[in-house]
Structures are given as C-alpha cells and as structure tokens.
Amino acid sequence: MGVIARLASGADVPVFPVVAAGGRLAAEALRLLPGVRVEDTPRAATVLVVVGRLTRALLHPALVVHDQLPQPRATVWMPIGVDEAGDPEGLLSAFPSVTTVGAGDTAGLRTVFADLVSGVRASDSPALPDMEPAHWRGVGPYGHGGAGMTGGVPFGRPLPARAPDPDGLELDQLPLQLGPLHPGLPPGLVLHVGLQGDVVRHAEVGANPYQSWPGDPAPGPLDTATFVDALRLPTPVADLELARARHHLRWVAQALRLHGLEALGLRVAALGGSLSPTDRCTVQAVTRRLAGSRSLAWATAGVGVTDGGLLDGIETRLETGPVRRAAGDTGDARSDDPAYQGLGFEPVVHQGADAWARLRQRLAEATQAMDLAERAGMRVRDPGPALEGPRGTIRLDAAMPSTALCELLPALLAGSEWGDAVTTVASLDLDVEEAALARSGSAPASGGRIAGTPTGSGHQNGGRPGAGAR
Amino acid sequence: MAPFGAALAVVLAAGVAVLAGRWLPSSVSSVAMTAPERVPFLGGGLPEVHAWSRYHVRYYSMALLFLAFDMEMVFMYPWAVVFVEEGAIALVEMLMFITILVLGILYAWREGALRWA
Amino acid sequence: MLLVGATLGLGAYAVAVLDGVGARVAAGGRLRLMDIAAGPLRRAALLARTSRSTTERPDLQAWALAPAIVAGMAAAAVAAVPFGPGIAVADVDDGIVLFGAAMAVVMVGVYLHGWSANSPMPLVGGYRFIALALSYEMPLALVLIAAALPAESLAVGAIVESQHDLWNVVRQPLGLPLYLVAGTGLAFWGPLNGADGPDLAGGTSAEVSGPALLAWELARRFVLVAVAVVGAAVFLGGWQGPILPGPAWMALKTLALLAVLVWAGHRLARVRLERFVVVAWAVLIPLALVDVFVSGALAL
User: What is the H or E stretch that residue A151 is in?
Assistant: First the structure.
C-alpha cells in the first residue's frame, strides 16, 4: 500500500446518509461520531449510509444517489430498532453490495472505508442500468438530438420551457423534483418546484416516500415516540418535558447547520443527545446566546411569515404548537392538562410569525421545558386523548401536526428565494415520517404499533440508553 | 515591465499547476461513467430538462450601478498617487465627484434598485 | 515563484488546521491536535484517489479552467506583495490595482464553476455569487485606495513603508474591518458563503468530486490566504516589526488575519443575499468613502 493510500485510509469517512424509515435520529447522530464527515452532496462522499428501513418509494432515489457517488464507493446499512433482521422485501438487494453496520458503530464503518480505499474491497459498480434519458445520438441535423432552435432532446434532455415572470417577462423555468434526499430539506420531503434563477415560482409537496405504497409496513419509531406513547401509557411529566427540550435542541442543531454554523450546531446536538435535568443552566445559556445572536436574527427575520390567516387556511387543522405560538397564538394543550396544573405553566408566545420568531420560540420552550421538568418532580401524567407534542397537539384520532405543516409549504414557498425557502422549511420543523403516519388514516392503530415498539423511546435519546429514563 | 512579466508567469504557473492537479490523478485510472452516474444531483430526483436556462438577473439594476461606480473609481487610482502633491484641492475635487455619485446610489436605492426578491 | 507557491501551500494548510481547531472549539469537543494536523493531508490524499465525476453535457473546458483561474488570481495577488524589503516576486508599481483586478477575475472563475456543471444547484450558487461579489468589490477597492493615499504610491511595498511610524489599522480604523468583510466574501467563506452553502447541497461544488473537488477547495483557500497576505501588508505594517526578520512578521500577521477570518466563519450565520446587498451599498460603501476622505485629510 502506497503512502497516499495509507494517508487516505486514515481520513474522516465522508458519508452521504439515506434517511430511511425510523432512521432520522440515528442519521443526525452520524454527525456527532468522531472520524465521520457527513457530506452535503454524494459527489463528495465515499460511503452511502442507508439508515433505517428502506421503503419502496425511497429505493429509486437511493439508487440514483448511490450512482452519483464517485468511485471508489461502498454502501452500508444501519438497521434501526426491532427491524434488525428486517429488510422483508429484499429492497437492499438492488444495491451492488451492502454491508450491515450497527447504528453508531464507527469502527465498523471505518473498516468498510479502509478496505475500500486500500483496495481490499472492490468499489461498488453502478446500481442502475446504463440507459440514457432519451435516444439522441445521431438524431437531428447535428446528431446531438436537437431540433430547430431549442427543440428536441439535445444530449438526452429537452431545454426548459418558458413561464411568466412577475416582471412581465417570459423566462425559462426549471421543473425540479428536489428531495427526498436533499441536504437542505428535512429527510424524506419531496418538493416539486418551478425554479426561475434562484426564485421558487411554485412548490408542491410530492408523494410521501415513507408510506406511499399500499402494503408498506408502518413507519417508525417516530422522533416524537415519547409523546405518542404517552397518549396510551402513564408517563412522568418530567420525562415528557425532557423529551420536549431534547427535541427542540435537536431541531436547533439542524437549523444552525443550514445557517452555516455547523460546529455550533454540533455542540447543541451533543447537549440535546445527553440531556439530563441537571443541564438546566446550560440550556438557558444556549438559549440566551442564540436568541441574542444578531447574525441569526439577520438571517431569519422576515423569512417565511405565516400571517394573513395562512395557518387557518389549510385543510388539516393545526391546533397548537410552536409555529402557532410564534405567531402570537397562546394555544397550548398543556394549559388544560390536569398533569400540568399547579406547575405554574404559562404558554410562551412570540410575535412576528417568521423564522426568527420560531427559532426563539423553540429556544424559549426548551428552557421552559427544563424548568417544568424540574418542578414536576415525580408527577405522572395519566393517559388522555390529547397531548401537547413538540410540534403541536397530538390526538389519537386526528392527523399529526406534521401533516398540517406540510400543507403550509406551497403558499409559504411561492415567490421566495431558494435560500429563504430552505430557511422557511427548516423553521417549520416538519417530519415527513410523522406526516406519513397521519396519511395512513388509522392513527389509533399506528399509534398502537408505535406504543408496542419497545425501543421507541430509547431512540428518542439518540441511542444513549438511560439518558431519558429518570 | 519585468515585474508584470513575473506576475503573469506566476498566474500561468499556478493555473497550470492546479489544472494538472485536477486532471492527472484521474486520467491515470479513468473510469467511463454510466448515464445514471452523470445525472445532476437533486437529492434523489431526476431532472426533466437541462439546467442551463435563461434566468432573470434580478439584480441587473444593481449591476448597472456597480458598473457606473466601478468605471469612475478608475480615476481614484491615479488620484491617490498625486493626492499629497496636489493637496487640499484634490480632496475637494474628489469629494465633489463622489458626492454626485453617492446621490446616484441614493436615487437608485429609493427607486428600489437594491430590492429584487 | 517558490515564495508564492510556499505561501499559498502553507497558507492553505494553515487555513485547514485553523478551521479544524475553530470547528472543534465551536463544537465544544476535545482538541486532538494530531488528527487536526493530519486531517487535511488525509482528506487531500483521499480526494486524489477518488474518481472525477462529470455530469450530462457539462462545459468541460470551463469546468477545468475555473479552479485554475481562481488559483492563478490568488497567486498573482500574493506575487505583488513583498515579504521583506525587496523580497517580492513581482513588486509592480500598481500592486493594489493588480490585486483588485485579480479579485475581480475570481468572480468569473466562481461563476464559471457554477455554470459549467449544467446542474441546477451549482447554477444557483454561481448566480448568487455574482450578486454578492458586485456588492463588495467596491468597498474592497476603496479601502485599498485609502491605504495608498499616505504612501503616495499604489505599490504594496511603498504602502508597507508608509506605515513605518503608524500601522494603517490604527491610522485608518475603518479600513481593516471593511477589507475583511470583502475578503470573506471573495473566498465565499463563512457568513458570505452564498455560492457553496449547504442549502444548495454544496453549491458550485455540488457536482465535483475527487481531484476536481480538491483543486476547487485549494483554490478557494488560496484566495483566503491572498486576502490575508495583502491585508497583513496593507493594514498591519507588513514586514515591519522588532527582533524577528521581515518574512517572519509577515507570516505571523497573515496567520493572525486568517485566524480572525476562520473564527468569524464559525461564529456568524450565513447572511441573506438581498439583505447583504442593501447593507453593502447603503452602509459599507459610504463607510469606505468616509475612510477614503478622512484618510486623505489626515495624510495632508
């Protein structure tokens, strides 16, 4: 092995994650592993990491991304929870080779990488057949597939068609499907956008890749599993509030990454991953620092404003939640929850209804949750039909909050610059998997399946057993 | 002209070095890419059309403002060299000149040339 | 020639190490200095051994040329800076004009890099970069002109010598901060990284892999180094300083500026494009003009 190869096999493993069903928390935890580098584009990655259970709708996007990794490349599967045996449909066999590695097993990942770089392991061949998008070779007067000025399929694809522009111009508009594996969007979110330059002219949410085929098994465990479980099982209030703080800190970490503060985000993610009741002051300090950040205010203020009845104009009802409270609404299911009586609970509210208000809202709620967890002591919440989750009210018989949040997107994104669109989507904290659960239209049954998943709340801790069980 | 020649040589040498560094390693063991491997990255989606498109350079008014300003600034370079020699008169002259330009910025700003989203 | 190569090479490595330290400090993790020191070399080795990707019908020549243009311009800027009395590759009479011109051509290189992949994300990155770059080219040129006023010369060597009694960072307090803002933007670093941000899946570098990515990452760091080298000469008194030899002072001052730039990258959130443009025109350019005229009045 040459000097270069030896040096190269010691590099941080550049991975591109495919966040499959139940894999969101473990995929986020990848960023915290020493010696692992999560890349924004497959072109910069060496190892494709499939985290969780692959669904049929995710298979093709995953294969597309797989082929976009440069050589040498390898595919690794990190199964999550009870599905360890489970790829019941054999979807992973569509990849040229897959090595199973436990979630968070850096050594396993590194072995695959080092074998690959040193040549012990062969690089993956392409997964998709070598077929061009259209027949173009030798077609047309120049043999490049084009016809006339801008017609035909030059080099395999047509040129973009024109669409009106607000300035009264007719300009090219790119019809793009972004996601489900776009690093700027929540995992699984498929956006069909019309892009003119860097402006999103229109946006629609595409089919949910976590449950779009009839017969796909239910998704899960959700990142809000602790809350869904609490609808059916008595749960200590302190556990719920700690889970809430943990959830908001996780979200803050992701938002910071998209705002170019990845390292700071890692600090917040690490705090969230190992959060215990004694971290109250640390959470307060983080809140104070970020809520007082001029540069964050500058990057988010005035972006994604949910005013003008937007929150009431969607099909699914968004009852409560940080998005509503950041728009000045005091609604909070905890206000009427007997378990919270006498704890001095007052809903936190922010004005502004923009991404900056939502960021401060979640920071303030994380701090408040730490306070409540401390004050709640040993108090236990009895199962009840409705509960305030970190994204809004969760009910046994109604859609999850993420369903409503997804419905907000078309109106919020139309006309915004792409960077603002990404900020807006991130500020809503929507989880596509949670939306899939509601779409199945059988919330009680799905809820039951989640409640019956013993590892559900264990994953809420990002795989750190004991961190939440107090 | 000798220093300029040296500068040009440096530009060429650095450019060629980077070009060679970019080209050589993979041309040694070049692998032909399949069609799916060459698909632009959209996060798992496939593009329907080519990305090259006629888009609205919405900051064109700002770009024009830049052009105007940048041309005038060429005068400031020689001005800077003779400034101390010429004394206060040079300062006043340039101040007048720049004031007129700044009025231009203010006008453009008021007209919304810097707002384009 | 060797001087320029060594400066850029060592400087790029220093940026990578400083960035590693900065990221670890911001993330609150333990500093493992061996890993931080070896990390950039290991990554470079990995990229050199990875295949170079292409897209459907890219503009291959322009794609290859883009990092060469950016690196070449950074090299030209460094060549114009003397590292000691008379120690310069090309101490041209119009050093800061050369620097300004080189940095303007960087704009072309970055846009080409985004354009030539024929892919939507890089294209948007290139588009954004032009909007940002047009906004900070002006303050950059203005603060350099202000520094030339007391020197009565556009040569970098003369500007360094004019700071014999008092460094420009003190004499023209507006100069260095404005210069660093523009310099951050030129290397599309940290808060001004509109071209290669995570929201665009890597922006102009979303479609490059292996040696092409290595070349681009290097070229970008070369620009940051060139900005720091010129900044050290123009605002921090260049080679002047007690005890140590001139080149050592230059190296120290350059490293200090690089540390500031890298630190800011880990502390400040990425700016919104449109907001920054308004601030650049309505605040930065007027401030730069104030800098020019106050410096002029003081120089008389």
Answer: strand A151-152
